[in-house]
Each structure stands twice: as C-alpha cells, then as structure tokens.
C-alpha cells in the first residue's frame, strides 16, 4: 500500500531539520514527509497536498508555492522538553532574555514555558529590532530555541533549548486528515507521550540527585565546628546548621524560612548583620563569647553569618600547641624571657617585636652568648605563625652530609641506610611555621647554594626525589660572624646574604648593658638554688667591669661556678673562677682592628673631600683615591653606613658623609 505524503514548510533549515526529524520519528512509518525551508529553496507550486506550516509567520514567504487543492495546517508548537533541564539550574528570580526571530514566537515560547511550570525566572523577550533598556542591557543570560546567532554580544551565558516541536494536537490533526486517527491515534499519542515520560524520568533523577546533594551539603554544614546561618535578600533564613541551633536554642526546622530578626533579637548584632562596612565583630550571645563573621554571595544575593566560639578556639590552639610541644616543634621563649631593663635592651626588644609582625626573613647578628636563639623564639611567638611549628637547626653542630638530609629530607632508597618510605626534612616539617637557621655563617658554600634556591623559590626537593615540594616557612637566621668579611674572603655568597638580611636585628653585647648584670645574676641564682644568696658589692663591681667576651652565657657559667664553690650565702671575690680576669679591660686593640679603623678614617676623609668639592661621591671616584678594589670599597661603605657615618644613595646619586661621620673623623684627627 502506497504511503500518504505531506509537505512541511519552515522558515529556517534548522527548524526544517528538527521538525522533519520529529515527524519521521512519530509518523514516518505511515506517512512520507517532504520538507523545505524558505531561507534555502522552495519547490514548485504544490497541488492537492497536505501542507504543514512551521508557524503562521512564514505564510507570506511560502504562499506562492501553495496551489489549488492544498490543505494548510499551521502547526502548534511546544517546548523541546529534552533540553529544559538546563533551565532548572538558573537561580530563582534571575532575569533572562528569551531570544527568538519574531515578537510573536518569543511571546508564545515564554507562555509555553510558564505553562509547564518553569516560572522561577523572569523572562524578557528579545528579537531582531528590539531595543533593550539600560537595565535590560545588563542581563548576562539568554535562552533561545535554536536562534543562537540572534543573542546580543553582551550576554555571557547562552542556553540553547532547541527548536520548538510540533505538539500533539497538530499531530492528531494530521492523522485525521489522512483518516488514520482512529487506527493510529492511540499509538501515535503513546509515542509522543513516551518522550515526555522519558524526560520526566530524567528530571526525576536529576531532582533525586539534587536532593541527595542538598542532604550531603547539609551534613557537611552540620559537621563544621562553627555556627552557620544564611539568609536571602528578603531576610529569610535558608541555612541554619546544628551549631547555630546550639548557640541560639532554636531548632533549624523553626528557623528555616523565618526572617533573621525572628531568631536574633540583639540590636547590635542585627545592626552588624545588615550593615556593609564591617566583616567581623565580637559578641556575647546566650552567655557565650562568639566572634561573628559576615560575607555576601553576590551571585546568589545571599548573606552568610559564621559564629565562632572564641573559648573553643583558644582551647583548640592550646591543644595544637601541646601537640607541637610533644614533637619538640615549639618556640619555648618569649620576650618576657629576655632579661634586662637597660635602654638598649628595651629598644632591641621593641624592634624585634615590630619585625615579628612581618613575613620577611630576619637576620639576627650578635656575639656568642647574646641570646640570638631567645630572640628567634620570641619573634616566632608574637608572629602570625605562633601556633605553627618552630624548628631550629645549628649549622655548626652537624656534618654537611647529615645536614643536607636533615634539612631537605630524602626519598626511600636515596642512599644506603635510608628509611623505608623516606623522611621529611626540617623545611617540610616547619611548613606553615618558622625555621631558625642558627650559626648560618658556618654553612658551606655548596649548602649556601641550596639554601638560596629554597628561599627564592619557596620549594624543596628531597634527596633522591624528582619533584619539587612547595613550602610556606618564615626564615630566621643568626650568626656571630662578620658575614661581610666572609663575603670579601669568598666564604659566603653575597646573594644569600641579601636574601637573609631583608630585616636585621643586632643584639648588644653584655659589656654595653652592664646595668642589666645585677638582674641577670639574681635570675641565674634563683634558677639554681632556693637559698637566699646575694652578691657582695666588690664582686658586683668586678662583674660590671669584666669585658664578657662570652656575654650572658659566660656570666651564667660564672654564677654557676661561684654557687658551686661558695662557702657562705654571700658570693665573694674568692669565689670568682679567675680573679685576674675580672678587672677593667686594658688589653690593646688587635692589629686587624687598627687596620680596619684606619681604612674607615681614610675612606671618610675621601668622601668628605669629594662632598666638599664635587657634591655626593660616586663609588668609582672613591675607588680611584684609595688603594682598595671597588668590591672592597663597597663592603667598607656598607659598614660605614651601618654605623651611621655615611648615607649611600640609590643608583648614581652617590655617597654623602653624615654629621656623625664628620664628628668621628674630627675625633680621630685630634
């Protein structure tokens, strides 16, 4: 039996192909479908055929090919359900452009979407020739049934829901025309609705997954240690976790959907929640000390409030600190442990406290026994990293082969005796905290190169490893050596020196703070005995006059010795370890000191003369007038600048002698 035929006329080839596919899928077994698009080409004049218009709008474009005896059915169209699940992902209340080729089709499509329940978004029809208002021009999302080329360039999110399909009523009208409705109506209806059922099942699965995801997210939010509350632009609560229930005494089922003011009555808290300039503030709520944080999610137009129990936070920090203490990764000393009230000590502690507030490397310089390790500990304990690890390594105490594995760690099998599974080095273990590089002046040139790379790149590579491991550590280094002299001798890298000496702290020797000796001595006595021990005045005078080349460590050893040999509760001159050494310092300066001082005087004189006749002195001119090399001149200028005798300008601005430098120069010529 020969199949019946119909002709489909559409405006665009995309509409033609989509509707041809739909008709073939549902009716193709019984009816032969021919289709044409007016934008492409049309057949000759049709006669005695059923003609389906894709829409009434194309009538003017195609009516000249519709001849006598033709019956025309204008298709009623509906949304392509296969793609509408994308629309459910759009936020509620979002304004979107609905883009179509004509005003009528745009309005019809919007009406169809609203009828099938997609009403959570606000549609703005758009078509060629329509002018958008300034407010509408800010819309960033557009929906279109296949007309992607018509979407304005300003739109960033483009959703193609596919060409609208022919609805069931038009399909039944086609069957009725061919007298097939009674025989095939039920089957065709089933085929049509099967598509909708498949989509419904798909949307049901999507909904189930969304529900499961929401439940999962609720469990996650309920599992955090802080109270979490969120509310929308109308003040309606959308999130209220279990910790928020504990803090407020309100079950979440009674809070969700209520206005935020229904839960929180405190005026100061409400003022904080609804204002825009502050992001955190301390409150007492129901007897609990809470730090409250607020932030706004612009895309969702939602405000989130976080309630953090400060008492619990302190307890957690104590627990974390205890854990670090158990591992030995903690700074034991604070600025309170640094004994002394002399102006120079108070000033040094003040500077150290300021340096601690930064994240920059610190180089602590001072003679042996001046307390460099105490200052390193104290800097960590007032820094933002105080609850993180503090690890120390002494470069003079470890051989180089062991030092490398201690600092950088190693992979399994890296060398004979390597532990199974490898080992994390000190830099890895200090991640997030501070590493103290003590006696940095004793490190080998080879190790200096590796340290420089770590400081520059903030990453390490284990011995035997093939990947770089990022680290976040603050570097505090210390030395009792003159690093500038070591640089001049080629024993220390100048680039590493400048990397370490971003911030510098110079510790005063004990002979410059003799006023602190009585308090230091009394402290050392209390640490070693509960007896009432005092120091005789002659001994105290001798202690104050001693040069103390070993500084505080030497003083402590001296007190320990005297306590061990004393015959009474008064420490006397006979108790001193070597009375001859505890006399005013009368030793002559070393030849090296004399030469260095003479060089400084000569350099200052050259700079002074150049300043008087030529303005600021360039380094090249200074070098020409001295027997020193340019490198030697540069290092000595650096020392003179540290003493405050000169000012070294940037670039070509040259060097100028200061008032202090002039005074020093005059004192040497007397």
From TrEMBL:
Keywords: ATP-binding, DNA-binding, Nucleotide-binding
Residue ranges of domain Sigma-54 factor interaction in the record: 338-564
Any one Gene Ontology BP term: regulation of DNA-templated transcription
Domain PAS: 213-277
Gene3D superfamilies noted in UniProt: 1.10.8.60, P-loop containing nucleotide triphosphate hydrolases, PAS domain, Winged helix-like DNA-binding domain superfamily/Winged helix DNA-binding domain
InterPro entries xrefs: AAA+_ATPase, AAA_lid_NorR, P-loop_NTPase, PAS, PAS-like_dom_sf, PAS_fold, Sigma_54_int, Sigma_54_int_dom_ATP-bd_1
SMART domains per record: AAA (SM00382), PAS (SM00091)
Top-level division of the source organism's lineage: Bacteria
Protein name, as recorded: Fis family transcriptional regulator
Single GO term (MF): DNA binding
Pfam families: AAA_lid_14, PAS, Sigma54_activat
């Amino acid at each position: 039996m020969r199949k019946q035929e119909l002709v489909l006329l559409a405006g665009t080839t995309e509409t033609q192909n989509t509707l041809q596919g739909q008709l073939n899928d549902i009716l193709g077994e019984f009816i032969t479908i021919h289709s044409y698009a007016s934008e492409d080409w049309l057949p000759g004049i049709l006669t005695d055929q059923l003609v389906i218009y894709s829409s009434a709008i194309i009538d003017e474009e195609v009516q000249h090919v519709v001849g006598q005896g033709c019956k025309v059915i204008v298709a009623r169209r509906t949304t392509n359900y296969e793609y509408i699940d994308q629309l459910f992902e759009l936020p509620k209340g979002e304004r979107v452009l609905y883009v179509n080729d004509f005003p009528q089709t745009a309005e019809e499509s919007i009406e169809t979407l609203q009828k099938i329940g997609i009403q959570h978004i606000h549609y703005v029809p758009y078509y060629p020739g329509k002018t958008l208002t300034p407010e509408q021009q800010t819309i960033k999302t557009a929906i279109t049934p296949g007309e992607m080329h018509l979407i304005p360039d300003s739109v960033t999110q483009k959703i193609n829901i596919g060409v609208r399909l022919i609805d069931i009523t038009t399909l039944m009208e086609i069957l009725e025309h061919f007298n097939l409705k009674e025989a095939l109506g039920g089957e065709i209806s089933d085929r049509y609705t099967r598509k909708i059922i498949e989509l419904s099942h798909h949307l049901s699965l999507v909904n189930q997954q969304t529900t499961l995801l929401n439940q999962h997210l609720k469990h996650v939010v309920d599992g955090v240690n802080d109270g979490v509350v969120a509310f929308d632009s109308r003040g309606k609560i959308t999130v209220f976790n279990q910790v928020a229930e504990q803090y407020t005494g309100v079950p979440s089922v009674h809070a969700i959907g209520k206005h935020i003011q229904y839960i929180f009555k405190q005026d100061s808290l409400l003022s904080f929640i609804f204002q825009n300039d502050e992001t955190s503030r301390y409150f007492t709520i129901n007897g609990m000390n809470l730090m409250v944080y607020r932030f706004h999610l612009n895309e969702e137009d939602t405000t989130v409030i976080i309630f953090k129990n400060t008492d619990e936070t302190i307890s957690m920090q104590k627990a974390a600190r205890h854990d670090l203490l158990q591992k030995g990764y903690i700074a034991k000393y604070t600025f309170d442990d640094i004994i002394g009230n002399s102006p120079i000590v108070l000033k040094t502690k003040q500077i150290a406290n300021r340096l601690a507030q930064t994240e920059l490397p610190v180089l602590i310089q001072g003679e042996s026994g001046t307390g460099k390790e105490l200052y390193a500990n104290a800097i960590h304990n007032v820094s933002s990293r105080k609850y993180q690890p503090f690890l120390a390594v002494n470069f003079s105490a470890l051989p180089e082969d062991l030092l490398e594995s201690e600092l950088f760690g190693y992979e399994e099998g890296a060398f004979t005796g390597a532990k199974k599974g490898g080992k994390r080095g000190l830099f890895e273990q200090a991640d997030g905290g501070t590493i103290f590089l003590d006696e940095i002046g004793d490190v080998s040139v080879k190790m200096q190169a590796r340290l420089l790379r770590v400081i520059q790149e903030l990453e390490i590579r284990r011995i035997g490893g093939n990947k770089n491991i990022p680290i976040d550590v603050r570097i505090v280094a210390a030395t009792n050596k003159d690093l500038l002299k070591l640089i001049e001798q080629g024993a220390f890298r100048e680039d590493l020196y400048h990397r370490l000496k971003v911030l510098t702290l110079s510790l005063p020797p004990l002979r410059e703070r003799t006023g602190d000796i009585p308090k230091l001595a009394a402290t050392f006595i209390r640490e070693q005995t509960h007896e009432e021990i005092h120091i005789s005045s002659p001994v105290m005078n001798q202690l104050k006059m001693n040069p103390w080349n070993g500084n505080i460590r030497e003083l402590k050893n001296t007190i320990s010795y005297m306590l061990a040999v004393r015959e009474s509760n008064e420490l006397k001159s006979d108790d001193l370890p070597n009375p001859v050494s505890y006399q005013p310092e009368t030793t002559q300066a070393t030849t090296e000191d004399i030469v260095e001082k003479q060089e400084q005087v000569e350099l200052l004189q050259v700079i002074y003369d150049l300043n008087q006749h030529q303005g600021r002195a360039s380094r090249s001119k200074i070098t020409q007038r001295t027997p020193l090399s340019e490198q030697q001149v540069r290092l000595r200028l650096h020392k003179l600048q540290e003493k405050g005798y000169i000012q070294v300008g940037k670039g070509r601005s040259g060097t100028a002698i200061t008032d202090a430098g002039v005074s020093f120069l005059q004192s040497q010529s007397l």
